[in-house]
Hints:
The chain has 496 residues and is α/β, with parallel strands linked by helices. 47% of the residues lie in helices and 12% in strands. It is built from 20 helices and 14 strands. The strands form 3 sheets. Strands 1, 2, 10, 11, 12, 13 and 14 form a 7-stranded mixed sheet that branches. The chain has a 5-stranded parallel sheet with strand order 6-5-7-8-9, with helices on both faces. Strands 3-4 form a two-stranded antiparallel ribbon.
Amino acid sequence: MTADWSKIEALPATKLTDLFAADSERLSKLSLDVAGIHFDWSKTHLTTDMVTAFEEMAKAQDLSGKRQALFSGEVVNVTEGRAVEHTAERGEGKPESVAIAQASHQRMRTLIDAIEAEALGPVRHILHVGIGGSALGPQLLVDALGRDDKRYDVAIVANVDGVALEDVFAKFDPAATLLVVASKTFTTTETLMNAESVLQWMTEHNVEDPYGRVIALTASPEKAMEWGVDETRILPFAESVGGRYSLWSTIGFPAAIALGWDRFEELLEGAAEMDRHFRLSALHENAPALAAFADLYYTQIRHAETRAPFAYDERLRLLPSYLQQLEMESNGKSVTVDGQPLGRPSAAITWGGVGTEAQHAVFQLLHQGTHLVPVEFIAVIEPGDTLPEEHHRALLLNAFAQGAALMAGKQVEDPARSYSGDRPSSTLLLDDLDARTLGALIAFYEHRVFVNGVLLGINSFDQFGVELGKEMAKAAEKGGQTFDPSTDDLIKRAFG
């Protein structure tokens, strides 16, 4: 069913400063505290009437039923005929699927115990090769939570560019390196090429039995065994767990071994807390739903083509990149679940940056450019450093002041020095950046994507758009394939 946008389109577009002036309770109506995170949408153009209209649309689109189907393990990825069960990895889902996930986690923990006991020989370095969701999630976790006390040196390589691997080879001892190969299908060209190069590096440095130092993370264990990994060192996860939603599964192995099992469990518990909030809360007080309502207002009504999350915490520097895949691979679609043309914008283009350095790079456009870009500030109350407190105070005040400046603007006689204001932003303020809160934060973004997809009438869980270019690259590799004149010329110039 196509959603009816008429009620939302008919609502007046009131300036943000006027919205605050008209409603003394605006802040309390448009802010929430969930799982150690304060959410503030008061500096967006959402209103009570608009939220009510979105709730009516959600009812017409059966968001409640589709949410229940997601958590019940029913088929919600209709184009591929699959359930979508990443929530089962954190204990919220169909009981049978939760039991399978828990067994996989226990298998992972047992293998980690064996590695710590040096059953696979001495290990100081973890070299994880994967791509897309098999790399971005673990990389975010290790970078955010493992800066001070990770127990192993961890490198996560996705790029097939050999420079990426050689950078790691220069730092790691091959005799003390564990190779982790992460691929859902265990057929991913870039990942297997990188893995083979790591094995060659080990062999060249006289490592005895390099294959004995390989861990496979996959939903296709038989493929991993065919490739040469012993069954005891294969950590499976369910076919119903999508790549960009998979860090909760055995794909999270690098984080679990580097950070310790207790912190991995805390990550799952934080995500489960957000799962329960999303599943049980009414939409007008539901963090993922309210965030999606704001997203949809700006893409569908105000025609904003991008949205920009900025992490005011160095430990979250990889979050914008993680969200790029999560949001654009999920909701960058042009057809509905029924295969009909979407006929309206899909996901916004996600881009962003880190803290005060982004202010001196891209905020010029955000304040004075002609594009409407909803901004999201993500900050943490507790500092991640031990320097004098003015560092963290300055960091947070910059985040808060930028949101205020985007909204208020400033008018002076010189137009080059004027700011139009009325530019929207939201703020996510974490009490602390620990495993539990990070788990809740990532789960919030996952459910936000889901609500966006349901109200647009699209399937957020397939990703066929990533395949065509890869297929053409494989054809070119085999030789004898011709393309357009430009592409043929580039291949000739590069390879002769």
